[in-house]
UniProtKB/TrEMBL annotation:
Short name of any one Pfam family annotated for the protein: Glyco_hydro_1
The EC number(s) this enzyme carries: 3.2.1.85
InterPro entries xref list: 6P-beta-galactosidase, GH, GH_1_N_CS, Glyco_hydro_1, Glyco_hydro_1_AS
Reaction(s) catalysed by this chain's protein: a 6-phospho-beta-D-galactoside + H2O = D-galactose 6-phosphate + an alcohol
UniProt family annotation: Belongs to the glycosyl hydrolase 1 family.
Keywords, sorted A to Z: Glycosidase, Hydrolase
Highest classification ranks of the organism: Bacteria, Bacillati, Bacillota, Erysipelotrichia, Erysipelotrichales
GO BP terms, alphabetized: lactose catabolic process via tagatose-6-phosphate
Catalytic EC class: hydrolase
Superkingdom, natural source: Bacteria
The organism of origin for this protein: Faecalibaculum rodentium
Protein name (database record): 6-phospho-beta-galactosidase
Amino acid sequence: MKKLPEDFIFGGATAAYQAEGATKEGGKGPVAWDEFLEKQGRFLADPASDFYHKYPEDLELCSMFGVNGVRLSIAWSRIFPEGTGRINPEGVKFYHDVLAEAKKYGIKVFVTLHHFDTPKALFDQGDFLNRDTLDAFADYAKFCFEEYPEVEYWTTFNEIYPIATNQYLLGIFPPGIKYDLTKVIACLHNMMVAHARVVNLFKENGYSGQIGVVHSLETKYPASDAPEDIHAAFLDDALSIRFLLDATYKGGYSKETLEALDEICAANNASYDFPEEDFVELEKAKDRNDYLGINHYSSHFVKAYNGENAIHHNGTGDKGTGSYKVKGIGERIYKEGLERTDWDWLIYPQGLYDLLMRIKRDYPNYKAIYITENGMGYKDDFKNGIIMDEPRIDYIRKYLTSVADAIEDGVNVKGYFLWSLMDVFSWSNGYNKRYGLFFVDFETQERYPKESAYWYKHLAETKTIL
Ligand code: NOJ
């Protein structure tokens, strides 16, 4: 039986576009997703979980079930409908109201400034491939820091790597571009520079509270002992993990990271060009991150691959339909004997332990870590308001045990946020991939605690992983 520290946060995570709904209400400006989803015609981000109206109920549920931390994001286009310039007072007020409600229950709130939802006006100008967006993001961040002194924990970005790759490699996020590694690398780099600029601004202006970034970090292992597979895992890791952690904590890219990048570029006819002055910004920010948020769901086993790019995203929950092969990087394979979800995500808790130990070893200036997302997408069975989601409980138990083991071995992990607090809208899967502690009937917007919610309550009360 493992214990977690007394002051550990047992949280639940959400994001504006996935929870709020009300995409055209309250003066909110458009985001690229609105049109992208309409054209795709499978599902929309309305109603989502109607958090825009139901947040008092969701926060009350938190307090009833021991959830003492919540992750949410501010929708940039609720504050600045066009991304810059005109401010929307209704949007500004909405987040004050949410924060005040959370305060009533003593819930710690982690606020993300950008969770996949750049305002459309800026997105259409190239999103973070356009360097003007970095200025707009810094202005928006500054506005929020001054407007919301009640926020204790700020996060600049959520998941820079999935943004870059889903937008420009897999093409499952708008603008739906596939296999463009030049754009992937430019997006990764520019967003890291934007992060550093905002951290520097935060610290230099002396705002109160803490600031960090949330990275999606999914451990890579070679599919076999063959040197070419070991190298493939190294390349996949370099682009998805090392690149971001180097930028966050080393103030620039290590020699190995750049060598990997050059190799990936050569295989994909891609290139990069990082302006010198960016490294001044990264260098200044590297010891100023108060915490690192880690989103971690899965690990990947990688085999050498030099054929043409071929990715199929399993966005329906038809197990076995996903495939991932990137030229000059590798092929992610399903390892015999390892469980995976219906969306083909490998369940491998050792991956989280290994990742945490590696950060402690390679990036010793990390200060503190929060697991800002972990959880299991599952087709929950709803029987008259009763939802027995044992596989999810089992998943959380195993991953939290890895966290407890890493803490025992000296990693400073201070909290865990289950993705998701309640069932929410999922970007590329719609509504059948459920993650919540609370089941949402998307038609009536009724909430129902799942078995996992009772399990989590006990965990939060006893700090003991049963
Ligand atoms: C990561 C993202 O932050 C979140 O938006 C997403 O829905 C979950 N992972 C599950 O895929």
